[in-house]
Structure prediction request, 391 residues.
Amino acid sequence: MKVNHHALELEQNYLFSEVAKRIRAFQAANPSRELLKLSIGDVTRPLSRVVTDEMKAAAEDMSHAETFHGYGAEQGELFLREAIAGYYAQRGTQIAPDDIFISDGAKCDLGNLCDLFDADNTVLLPNPVYPVYFDTSIMSGRRVIFAAGTKENGFLPMPDHSVHADIIYLCSPNNPTGAVYSREQLAEWISYAKANGALILFDAAYEAYIRDPALPHSIFEIAGAADCAIEINSLSKTAGFTGVRCGWTVVPKTLRFDGASLHDMWFRRMATKYNGTSYIIQRAAAKVFSPEGLAAAHADIDYYMENAQIIKSALTAAGIHSVGGENAPYVWFEAPAHAESWDCFDTLLNQYGIAGTPGVGFGTAGQGWMRFSSFCTRETANQAAAYLAKL
Ligand code: PLP
Prediction:
């Protein structure tokens, strides 16, 4: 038996375990000091009552023969796919319900989509970015090249037309930088993809955090995307589903590469290796898209975004340059005095009791930068802001 040697090429990802280790050491050395955790990439507010009531009702249905559900529809329940199509339609984007595939989250879809592509493809990744794109590309044996985010380009790298790529991952709003591509910038990526016969994998997991009405929430808002893009999304950050698990992927029927329909291939892949998201969870997910479900989700998002504003304003007042935080729950800032990311992390933790996430953990271009998350309480955000003002 031979193992997948590409899986052995993965470097150990020490980022979050190292952050946790240093936080534990700080707490052991300073048992009475308060820890202000701005390092969390997970939601902290509970599910809305609207959603949990629907879960209970769906669970009740499962205990009666007349309303019991066994295996579900292969692409996910139609009522949920229609609710998601309706969500896109509210912003004028027409997505056919049968182009939507329900899953147990964006991370799984991002990894599973790799099943559709030959190993002999060049993958282009923004740097810094959510590490799953890199790790899953390496595990499936693909070449990876990078487009660097910098202070100058606002951490929104644009295509270099002299470089060829076959698969492009874009994350907007971006984790970790909180930067969001404009319509014009996405249009340029689409024209680059078309010129290269490339596919864009667009991760929209944080689209619900966009405040600026001019910014696109979906790549399908941009002309031409249905011929060259797949979109991955999730209720994890939109409605607090990180522990519940429900996401979706839009694979338009118009997508054809190498003589094959990616929609048909994804349908076949899902039907072969996945037996569907729990009926109870799909009912709860559909409820998120009801007027009362969306109102509850937006209230929580407003809460996180006010935290982001508090944190960002304190950094600005301290003369620290940051991006993000305006249309995303992450504030990405330059370490003061040209410090390296981990040195800045240690200083913030040991002097102020503030835990952030070192930017270098998201890619080499993150060196010298830090991520603060707004997934915290208002009290934590205010307290952290008070300390940051003294930096
Ligand atoms: N995409 C991005 C950019 C993320 O930051 C995350 C989670 O942090 C995910 C996807 C994963 O989402 P899910 O919980 O749906 O797997």
